[in-house]
Design goal:
Blueprint lengths: L2 H7 L5 E3 L5 E3 L2 H14 L25 E6 L15 H14 L3 E4 L3 E2 L15 E5 L19 H10 L5 H22 L2 H31 L8 H4 L3 H10 L3 H25 L5 E6 L8 H5 L4 E9 L9 E8 L1 H6 L3 H11 L4 E4 L7 E6 L8 E4 L2 H15 L2 E4 L9 H7 L4 E4 L20 E4 L8 H5 L2 H8 L8 H15 L8 H9 L5 E5 H4 L26 H4 L3 H12 L20
Parallel strand pairs: 3-4, 3-16, 4-7, 7-10, 10-13, 14-15, 15-16
Antiparallel strand pairs: 1-2, 5-6, 8-9, 8-11, 11-12
Helix pairs in contact: 1-2, 3-9, 4-5, 6-9, 12-13, 18-21
Length: 596
């Protein structure tokens, strides 16, 4: 069999049609590198089985009704008690706020585990692991074991709370010191009931938790990427892990303790949403890939290919293509493992959520992969077993009664959205993109019923920033192509006023929300950043340190939001358009620590 035929068996597409509609041939050396990476990682015969026809059993569709949700970047929550970084106690308060306003739940950024020694790389979309949680979201003051605060904690927390932006390094230093103190107190004084609860959690998470704890200990020990570690630790045996636990003292138990506490606090939020009758509860984002030097790539190196980066081919705005620095799933490895790593990823999010969004859902069908060391324009699309991936997604969705939304923005292959719909995967419709060829905004009737509708995303301007052209100026100041001229933006705003039927030049977010609320889309999301008039967007793609991405805080404290007229205006609109989820509220439990 020649090399090209073998590449095809591996799912590598030898050419593709670019954004201009022109065919592009993948360089032969890039094809060879991708094929070698897939073959090297695969434990068995290296080929991707063609999709067999599978009668769709659609994913879970949720309870009857049309809902609206509040959404925010949790790390940016301000409150009178947090430590300068939003936490799970703030999420608990947001759930109660959502219930009071008649919202169906709260939408959040990914909560995946990041690298604790690199807090200044805070993108939630570049995770260490999609199977575990970020301990920075732990509300340390609500841990039962944290009874005696070390000196100076209150002062440090107040300083971090007052900072204009999230000081990740400062928050991480303070929380790690106090989490260590809480763990030491647990080790010394925990009740038998509390120790049993910890043991039950460890048992429920199986070998993955032990391996994650070991990985964190080994990262601290070696200080460089896992593929440069001694061979024994690149894929340690159970006996090696037992030896590591004995050598490392309590370090592995400490890492497991952090995940236990984070899980308990997030589960408390989930359970509170259920008690309040919120039809969705938590709506969580799932990143498209993971860091190649992170746990998931180490844990299943045959299913997550660290030497191939996920990205995008050249387009008019990114003429050299994009390398996102993430490792994605290998179709060969996934099939060899009966899709186990993909199931684990879904379950890790669905255990807490009533709805999840799969970032870049096109990645279930194909991924644009770039070999290490090659420029982004020398990548290729690699096919995944699409129907089998959808079957697994639907199965897990029904198992956990969790709606699945696919981020399907941009150009997708013909028939792609129809196939998603057959499997019950909802669309993600962003108003800023819902326009015709002439630039006119689509009417509400254009939105699909099984869809999430929203005005913008974390990678685009906020409502206030878009109306005020703030994003255009920021990108110009950063030397980036805004993708739109001031004249084009002015014309777009005229089109928006026309859609809304406004005769004045002033456009307010509630008018946009009302228009979206009349659409058939069953789920409507209002970002707090839009509702509260935040000017600057969460993330400016194409920047790292040039812009404070993933660092901005909300403009006011959560305690003030219950009486905020802007949120009540949105709640009234939701009620008037049949989206209110108001039901008899369970009484608010007294603030308590997490002890059994």
């Amino acid at each position: 069999m020649d090399a090209l035929a073998q590449a095809s068996l591996l799912g590598i597409e030898l050419e593709y049609v670019d954004a201009r509609g022109e065919p592009r041939q993948v360089p032969a050396h890039a094809v060879a590198r991708i094929a070698d990476a897939l073959r090297t990682a695969a434990p068995g015969p290296a080929s991707v089985a063609e999709d067999a026809p599978v009668p769709p059993r659609p994913a879970y569709q949720g309870p009857p009704g049309r809902w609206w949700l509040l959404a925010t970047q949790l790390y940016g929550a301000r409150s009178r008690r947090n430590w300068g970084h939003g936490d799970f106690a703030d999420l608990f308060a947001l759930i109660e706020l959502a219930a009071a306003l008649g919202a169906g739940g709260v939408g959040l950024n990914p909560l995946h585990a990041l690298f604790d020694e690199g807090p200044e790389q805070p993108s939630p979309y570049s995770p260490n692991s999609r199977l575990f949680l970020n301990p920075l979201y732990i509300a340390v003051d609500e841990i039962a074991d944290f009874a005696d605060r070390p000196p100076g904690v209150a002062e440090e927390a107040a300083h971090l709370r007052e900072a204009e932006l999230v000081d990740y390094a400062g928050v991480a230093r303070l929380k790690q010191r106090c989490l260590r103190a809480a763990f030491d107190a647990f080790q010394a004084h925990a009740t038998a009931e509390r120790r049993d609860a910890f043991a039950a959690y460890r048992g429920s998470r199986g070998p993955a938790l032990e391996r994650f704890a070991a990985f964190e200990v080994l990262r601290a020990r070696f200080g460089h990427p896992w593929w440069e570690w001694p061979a024994e630790w690149r894929d340690p045996s159970p006996s090696a892990l037992a030896r590591l636990r004995a050598e490392a003292g309590d370090e592995m138990a400490y890492r497991e303790y952090l995940q236990w506490i984070a899980d308990r606090q997030l589960m408390r939020c989930r359970d509170r949403a259920h008690a309040l009758g919120l039809p969705i509860g938590l709506y969580l984002d799932v990143a498209v890939g993971v860091r190649p030097d992170g746990f998931d790539a180490w844990n299943t190196p045959d299913a997550v290919i660290r030497s191939l980066a996920v990205g995008a081919p050249p387009d008019p705005l990114n003429t050299r293509g994009q390398n996102w620095g993430l490792a994605g799933f290998s179709p060969v490895g996934l099939q060899a493992r009966a899709f186990g790593p993909y199931r684990d990823m879904l379950r890790a999010a669905m255990r807490y959520a009533g709805a999840i969004r799969l970032d870049h859902v096109l990645g279930l069908k194909r991924l644009y992969l770039i070999p290490d060391g090659l420029p982004p324009d020398q990548g290729a699309y690699v096919r995944l077993p699409f129907e089998q991936m959808l079957a697994v997604t639907a199965e897990e969705s029904n198992r956990d009664r969790c709606i699945v939304i696919g981020e399907d923005l941009g150009t997708v292959p013909q028939g792609f959205r129809a196939t998603l719909a057959q499997w019950g995967i909802w669309s993600y419709q962003v108003m800023l993109f819902e326009r015709d060829a002439a630039g006119a905004f689509h009417s509400p009737q254009h939105y699909r019923e099984r869809a999430l509708a929203t005005f913008s995303t974390h990678d685009l301007a906020t409502f206030a920033g878009w109306i005020g052209r703030r994003d255009l100026q920021v990108k110009k100041d950063l030397g980036l192509d805004p993708g739109e001229t001031a004249r084009e933006r002015a014309a777009a705003i005229v089109q928006l006023r026309r859609l809304l039927g406004l005769r004045t030049k002033q456009v307010a977010f509630p008018a946009v929300f009302r228009r979206l609320a009349t659409s058939p889309a069953r789920m409507l999301v209002a970002a707090l950043e839009d509702a509260l008039g935040v000017l600057d967007q969460v993330n400016v793609p194409g920047t790292i340190d040039q812009h404070p991405n993933w660092r901005r805080k909300l403009p006011c404290e959560l305690e003030q939001l219950r009486d905020d007229d802007r949120l009540h205006a949105i709640a009234r609109i939701a009620a008037e358009t049949g989206r209110s989820s108001v039901s008899p509220a369970a009484p608010t439990p007294a603030r308590q620590r997490d002890a059994p």
